[in-house]
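Worked Example 4.2. Consider the chain below.
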Amino acid sequence: MSASGGWNTIESDAGVFTYLVDNLGVKDVQFEEIVSLDATSLRQRGPVYGVIFLFKYPTGEKPQETPLDGSYDYAAAENHFFAAQTIQNACGTQALLSVLLNKAEAINIGPQLREFVEFTGAFPADLRGEALSNSELIRDVHNSFARASPFADEAQRTATEEDDVYHFIAYTYMNGTLYELDGLKPAPISHGSCSPDDFPDKVIPVLQRRIERYPAHEIRFNLMAMVQDVRIRAREVGDQEWLYQEEQKRNVWQWENALRRHNFIGFIGEMLKGLVGSKLQAGEAKYSEWIEEAKQKTNTRLEDRQKQKGGASEEDL
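Applying the procedure from the previous section yields the following structure tokens:
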């Protein structure tokens, strides 16, 4: 796998993924974070097209001819959309596209993604990966959701076993089979028979077995479900309160996504300079008084925390 090639890291966040696919032209799809690893919780999300799983990648793990769970289905790599990951930082978008582009009959993926599927249909997995990595549309939309940073790291290096490296993969059902779609593997991994109705019951045990490979103290996992736009169901049942809640959630997502695009380091620095400057203009005595007042407030907060020891609040934890 080559270096980032202009692809930036994005967060595993339902609002990011929802508006990412929306900006790619996909209609009536959203992502929901799943906090409880059980089939009932997943099924309650309504029509589920697939799930995106984020986990700590075992950088020291040696490649094996057979997967640790399931079996490679090389025919599925030719008959369905499966792309090798050929570039860093693209795995999040690649995982969601692995679900989307295999659901083109059930989901309105829009003209641009449909054209991409048709263009790459006869390609092998490695060329599909190259086509995806070099798509200006997909890369530009992906990068529009990356966090702004005041620091640019131009260095590229191979991750070591000591590094915390995270990876996105997808699980979905295709032609009566549950598949794990990981661009770092040579082919889709079959986990047995699966229908759309069975998907929650079939995918949860697979995820549990994967998590069980890690030490008990490892909790850095994230699971998101790709589902039908929840507002559609709210309108169908005429639940105005539910619809209002979903609209408000979208507003929050848009606000958070807008904040991600901005770097506030410069603003905070200028604000602090202005604050300190105003205190200095008032005279050295006033400046010293301000410092002492701040120290007293800090000590008071520390004393209050000490008094509350023994009945730690959720905020303290």
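The first strand starts at residue 29 and ends at 33. Confidence is low (pLDDT under 50) at residues 151-157, 310-317. Compare this with Example 4.1 before moving on.
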